[in-house]
Structures are given as C-alpha cells and as structure tokens.
Amino acid sequence: MGSKDSNDEKTADPGSRRPVAVIDIGSNSVRLVAYNGMTRTPIPLHNEKVICALGKGLERTGSLNSDGVGMAFNTVARFVQIARSLGVERIDALATAAVRDAKDGAAFAKALEKRCDIKVQILTGKQEARRSALGVLCGTPDADGVVADLGGGSLELVQIGQFEMKDHTTLPLGLLRLTEASDGDRAKAISIINKNLDKDKWVSSAKDKTLYAVGGAWRSLARVCIAQMDYPLHVLDNFALDRLQAMRLFDVISRLGTKSLEQIKGVSRSRLATLPLAAAVLERLLEITKPKSVVFSIYGMREGQFFKSLPEHIRKQDPLISLAEEIARAAGRAPQVGHETADWMGGIFKDETPRQKKLRIAACLLRDVAWTEHPDYRAEQAFLKVLRLPFLGLDHEDRAGLALALYYRYASEPSEPIIEQAHALLDNSRIHRVRTAGLALRLSYALSAGAPGVLKRTALRIDAGKLVLTLPKDDPMLTAAPYTRRMKRLADHLGLGERVDFV
C-alpha cells in the first residue's frame, strides 16, 4: 500500500501463534495492546491504557509535560513487563505527535529505550497517517474515502481507495493542543479548526464517499450518538451516520454541558471535557469534505501497526472469513465442514451477490459457535456472541443479519426484545434470507451431525417448485437421519413443496 516507511520494522515470523504487542505513546495516553498471534484479525489478548498527558502544555512550552514524563516511564516499564510475561514475539513501541513535536522528545525516547530495553520509534506525521489508514483497511479492505484520526496532539487525514494510501496531512488539531490554543473558547477553537482545514484542498476528495472517524474521542462521540438516537445496536465498530444526520447530532452534542454528558453510559470521565470540542472538529470536517456518510472505526494506528507486520499472504485473506475460521477452530470445529455446508446449501441461494455469499459462508463456519451452551439458551447465546464479536468490515445490517442467521439455526421465532431490535435493522427480504440460511443449517446438522465429508454425499436444490433433497439409498447414516421435520420447515418457509430422491 503506497510508499513504505524508510525505517519499517521486520515482519514477524509468519507461522507464529505467539502474541505481538504494540505500545502506543500518545500525546494524552500511553496504551498497551497485546494481540493474540500473527493472524489476519487483530484480536486483543490484553488492552490497557494510562492517561499520562505527555502533550499537556506543549503548545505553550514546546516541551513534554514533566509530570507526564515520569508517569510514562513507569507505565511503559510496566507494559514491557506485561508483554514479556505474556510471551510476546515482539514489542513495537511507537511515539506520536507529542514526542515528535517536543524539543525534548528525542531525549525522552532515548531515555525510555535505555530504561526499558526496547526500541522506540518516533513516527513522522506521514508514518502515523499511514498506520491509521492501514488500521481502517485492515478491517475494511474496500474502504474508499478519507481516514481522519484524532488524537491528543494531532489530526491525521489520509485519502484511501483501492487499498492504497494517497494524499495525507498532519494538522495540529489534537484535542490537548486545540484546548490549550483556544483557551477553552469554542468560537476561537472553531476559528483554529477552520484555518488548519482550509490548507489542504485534497480533503474534498471525500465528497460523496466515506469519512472514517478514528480515535478514542470520536469513539466516545459515537457512544453519545447511539444514546441520543436510542439506536438498537450498541456496537461501536462501523456505526454509520449519513452526513446531514451526523451534523445535526454533532451540533447538539458540541453544545452539551458536562452534567448532560455524564448521564450517558459508556463515556469515560476523562473524555467529558473535550467531547464537545471533538464533536466540533468532526462537524467542521464533514462540512468541508462533504462525504456521503461518516463511519466510526475502532481500528486505527495500533491495528495498522499490527497489520503492517503481517506477511503478505495473510494480509490478503478476507478478514471476516479468516476470523470465522479461527472461531470455528477455537470451538473445536473444522472450518472444512463450514465450507462444505456453504457449498451444499448454495443451490437454494440463487443470484446472490459476492457479499451475500461471503456472509452465508461465515454463518456456516460459525454454525456451532454456541454448541457448549445449554440447549435452552443456544439460540440466544449464538445470536449475542455473533452480534458482539469483533468482526472486521461488517456494517451493522450485515452484523445483525449474521447474528440472526445463527439464531434461526437453533430457534423458530424471536423470543427476546433484542432479537426484534436486530430485525428492525433489516428489510423483509433480508430477514427471509437469514431465516433461510438458519433453517438450512438446521437441516444440514440433522443429516451430517456436523461430521466432515457427509454432506458431499447429498445434494439440495430447487426444482419445479419443490425443494429436492438427494440422498444415497444404501447409506444408513443418511437414509435413517431425522431430517423429515426440518426439511418440511425449510420447504414451507420457501413456499415450496418437498421431495426426497434416493439414488
């Protein structure tokens, strides 16, 4: 993707299942994320942050906050010990805007290296922007528009499309810096925002595309939006708003007081003071770039660093299918059977798009995600687990549809309010499709008991207004299988008759 950093780190062992760690030394917080091995999906094994406020006062003094420096030394030392105790293969320590811009930043990094016996890379603005873009592309390979990553010290903007990074810029609009430069005055802050955003005309390339909002402040903003809208799905990743809807919400939120914001569940107290300013930055960015929609991504610079270190053949894997296969293996189920199941039911899904097919394959791979649960609760637990998993590249409609397919793999009708809420995100044709997948999964299990190779001896198709199941006549595992009731239920759902052919 685009040009490479001049000092890119070596790629980790492509066959390794050992964790890898990223220590992000930011302007406001220092965070450790240890990821569970070199797989396509960056699944956190441990995630911890400490507010050190290294960039506090930087706008005024040009130096790092002395209190924050002491905290950062102790925090990074702790994080290094945690990472090594987890048996990580590598530790990538990255310092961003505050360390990059402070006159004592390089000396701080060298002292940190000596004290903690690690290598600290001070990212340039371009490198930081590139990693933020890679983080979004890690989850959404077909992302097209502009990535905006708001931190404590800077705002990174980068144009992406066709898995490439194009134009980019780094602006001194991080929330710590902006708060200090404006003395907390909203009108002055907006004037500073406008002055900086007007410098780079290329940002208008997001027009009618997507603006991807990255960073903790904007994740908190997404939580507020979800609360304000009474939105049915409380999942941050890929939460999307159209531009006009977003601007109306942000305008209201940017004027809310701390007491009002404190009432919203999930918004940390450390974010409250700067949340209205974060809303103002994003609101103005939407006015300038005029995207079709804004999408909030939980993946950013740290996930981009993880993704950058993967070997090329792993980076090329589809993130959803790769994660579904990992979950199947963790559940003691062979991904091979999931793929066989998807092939077997393909005959009843005509004219499906590539995305629809991918989601159906994922449902087949995840078919036994709740097999260890009590039978009375499997449907609900399968639904909740899939709904809340850290899937990459799924919009909320896709996420709800996939969860409902797994629900109908076990149950016939919705029994909980949250199931109805998921229905509300989908149109009738989508609900019909996910029910079809769920009922087909139930039939497949009645025939094969989830064993590999069994479904290959059968066939399922639609012919002359009937659902036709073909079975080998001399195979007792299949001819005596308890499939009749499930076959009829699927046929009735499809509005078809039914027929079984023995060959």
Summarize the helices and strands and which ones pair or pack.
Layout lengths: L19 E6 L3 E7 L8 E8 L6 H4 L4 H20 L4 E6 L1 H5 L3 H12 L3 E3 L2 H15 L5 E6 L4 E7 L2 E8 L3 H8 L3 H12 L12 E5 L1 H14 L9 E4 H11 L4 H5 L6 H4 L2 H15 L3 E5 L3 H8 L3 H4 L3 H12 L4 H11 L8 H12 L12 H11 L7 H15 L6 H7 L4 H21 L10 E5 L2 E6 L4 H4 L4 H11 L2 E6 L1
Parallel strand pairs: 1-4, 4-5, 6-9, 9-11, 13-14
Antiparallel strand pairs: 1-2, 2-3, 6-7, 7-8, 10-11, 12-13
- Which spans of ≥5 residues are poorly predicted at pLDDT below 50? 1-15
The main sheet comes to: 6 strands, mixed
Number of helices: 23
Radius of gyration (CA) equals 25 Å
Count the domains. 3
Number of strands: 14
Overall, the morphology is elongated
**What is the C-level CATH assignment of the largest domain?**
Mainly Alpha
Provide the CATH architecture of the largest domain: Orthogonal Bundle
- Determine the CATH superfamily of the largest domain: Hypothetical protein af1432
How confident overall, as mean pLDDT?
A: 89
Q: Please give the alpha-carbon distance between the first and last residues.
A: 52 Å
CATH topology of the largest domain: Hypothetical protein af1432
Please give the order of strands in the largest beta sheet.
8-7-6-9-11-10
* Structural category: alpha/beta
Percentage of residues in DSSP E strands? 15-25%
Question: Portion of residues in helices?
Answer: 40-55%
